[in-house]
Every structure is written in C-alpha cells, then in structure tokens.
Design a protein that fits this description.
The chain contains five helices and seven strands. The protein is an alpha+beta fold. β2 and β3 form a beta hairpin.
C-alpha cells in the first residue's frame, strides 16, 4: 500500500534500506526514474500515477543501497556531525522554523542560488565510491582495491607498484 506517498514530492526514508537487499534494487530504480508508478489503496484497487517524487534516504549503514557500476540515481553526502548534542544550536534552528516567513526565506534562498553543477547528474563523492564497492562483482572489487592502494601482489608474492606513465616497479 503506497497511496500515502501518491501526492508527495519529497519522500524521506530513515534507515529504510540496506545494500545487501539486492532484490529491492529494481524497485528503487523504478521508483526514482520512471515518470509514472503504480499506486495502491489499502482495500482498494491500484492505478498509475505521475511520479514527481524525490527520494531522500538516511542511514548509518555504509552499504545503504545496492549500486551498479555507473549508477546515475544516487548522490551520497557525508554529514558533518559537529552540531550533534549542541542543544542551543538546535533550539535556535527550531525557533526559526516557528517564524511565519521561514518557508518564503527558504524558497528565496533556493531560487536565488547560482547552481554550477549539473543537477541532473548525481555527484560522485568518495562516500559513493565506498558505498558502491560491496555491490560490485568480486573482480571489480579486486580491481578497485588495486586502484585505491596503488599496488597488487603478484603470483610470486612480490608487490607490484602502479605508477603514473604506465610503468610499474616490482618489490
């Protein structure tokens, strides 16, 4: 039953996914990408609706969603934790939300901001690369580890160091 999100623009999912559930990958991709989605009413029928949803997922899990190579649906942000526990900061923040004009101020801020990046492409961040690693096939995990470390261990146990210019050194 998903009719409760039928008319929502932002759908917030707190700790609702885990990358190990590969069976949800297609459902997430469909929900994020398709122009229409099926809506189902409890004890009622189901029908297609236009989808204007934007999905925001928060989690403490490093492997939050199953990612394919070249994923174009997810941006991963590592949130700064320097305000955790600072109650005075959050009291001031929530007091601003109680003001009548906070929505107008937020819209003004968002509309007047100069956007320099292509917002139709997700940002590639180090956190996204880290999150993609567990979803990769074993060969690609191995290859990414080599690229990250800058070396690999040869069959004879020697360490082959990768260097710029295509040269390598054996130790």
């Amino acid at each position: 039953f998903n009719f409760y999100i039928a008319n929502k623009i932002i759908v917030f999912a707190d700790e609702a996914t885990w990358g190990g559930y590969k069976n949800i990958q297609g459902h997430l991709q469909y929900f994020i990408t398709e122009p229409t989605i099926p809506a189902e009413v409890k004890y009622g029928g189901h029908f297609q609706i236009s989808s204007y949803h934007r999905l925001m997922v928060t989690t403490n899990n490093m492997w939050s969603v199953p990612l394919g190579v070249g994923d174009r649906r997810f941006t991963f942000l590592d949130v700064n934790l320097n305000k955790v526990g600072e109650m005075d900061h959050w009291r001031k923040f929530y007091a601003k939300l109680d003001q009548d004009d906070w929505q107008e101020n937020m819209i003004y801020e968002l509309m007047s901001r100069k956007i320099k990046n292509n917002v139709h492409q997700p940002f590639m961040t180090e956190l996204k690369l880290d999150a993609a690693l567990p979803s990769m096939e074993p060969f690609w995990q191995w290859w990414m580890q080599i690229l990250h470390n800058g070396y690999f261990i040869g069959q004879d146990g020697s360490q082959v160091i990768l260097q710029d210019g295509g040269e390598s050194r054996v130790y």
